[in-house]
Amino acid sequence: MTRANRPGRGALARGREALDPRRAETQQALAPRPDNPLDDLRPVLLDPSGTGLRMLALLFLAGGVLGLLSLALPRNPHARLAVLVGLALAAIAASGYLWQLGRRSRPTWVTLASLLFGCLLVAMAVANDQAASAYGLFFVWVAVSAFLLLRRRLALLVLSVAAGAYAAALALAVGGGVGRGGSEAQRWLVTVGTAAVAGFLVGALRERAVTLTERLSGAAHTDPLTGLLNRRGFDAVLDREVERSRRSGRPLSVVFGDVDGLKGLNDAAGHDAGDAALVAIARAIWHLKRRIDVGARFGGDEFALVLPEADAAGALVVAERIRRGVTSAAAVPPGLTISFGVACLPTDTDNRRDLLRAADRALYAAKQAGRDRTKLAAELPPAPPVTK
Q1: I want to staple 155 with a disulfide (CB 3.0 to 4.6 A). Which of 114, 147, 171, 376 is the partner?
Q2: Are residues 143 and 244 in the same domain?
Q3: Is residue 3 assigned to a domain?
Q4: Are 159 and 199 in contact, with CB atoms under 8 Å apart?
Q5: Do residues 316 and 370 share a domain?
């Protein structure tokens, strides 16, 4: 086995990269494509590995400054002043390092390690001051940050480490000792209990905010009639997939669809019948597309699909399958059909705007050719140049 292939070398390299602030501008790999396209459209309230690290940097800075200021006040004569100054300066130095790390997303373990390092600093401050040290209150900061930035299981781990570290610090505190009427045990219980209650409250509020944000985001990106994405959701997914296509070199196709005869159905049977037909067509699109494809309704009788990893030939197969499925669906009124236009990146164009224009031109050609058919943008003559 060569040295380059030894187990663990890749993990060590990734670990060094995660802790290297100079790699803040490194291009990140795209995340795996989610099964639900809305997953990528939900806003992140607080990125635990980017913005969260900068929040921790500010807390470390505040803790270090408060620690230095506290040394100017009357204190325990047995406290180890040099050690406390060093701990405060270490916290300030760590804040600068975390601020640089927060320039881009990092693995979750970086946030976890930062919080555990905070536990160590606080415990050492208590141990080198006195059992009655006010520095123990910093454990509340650690707990609140853990429940705000990490999943509950990891937050509980940080809380447990903080509780153990505080107990050890109280036992080792200079001029302290655990045999003075149980005051250390009482102080430990109240401090750790306060940290736990504050952490759980912050965690519950965070989960509630995430739930509400996801609901609002889903409503903002979903067509209320059909359940497909709306134009805003389609644009967001397309932006993501165009970037993925450029970086991977894989093809990407867009399909525009327009229902044939919907206006006549609305005039003859009313808009309720038209809405029911649109829902039936949306269901056909949902069931006949591929799992990774994303369907959307722009409004009225217009539909669209984003087809990742599909060239023009593959997109034509999907569009034709949906077109035939709509025509034969029992829930779709007789005489109602759909026309499709297909464009592909990078064969038809190399940018998002022209990709949409090419799909729209292909759809227009399908309508002009008699409807109930699919046209490829590659089959059309070049579009005339736009003149001012």
Answers
A1: 147
A2: no
A3: no
A4: yes
A5: yes
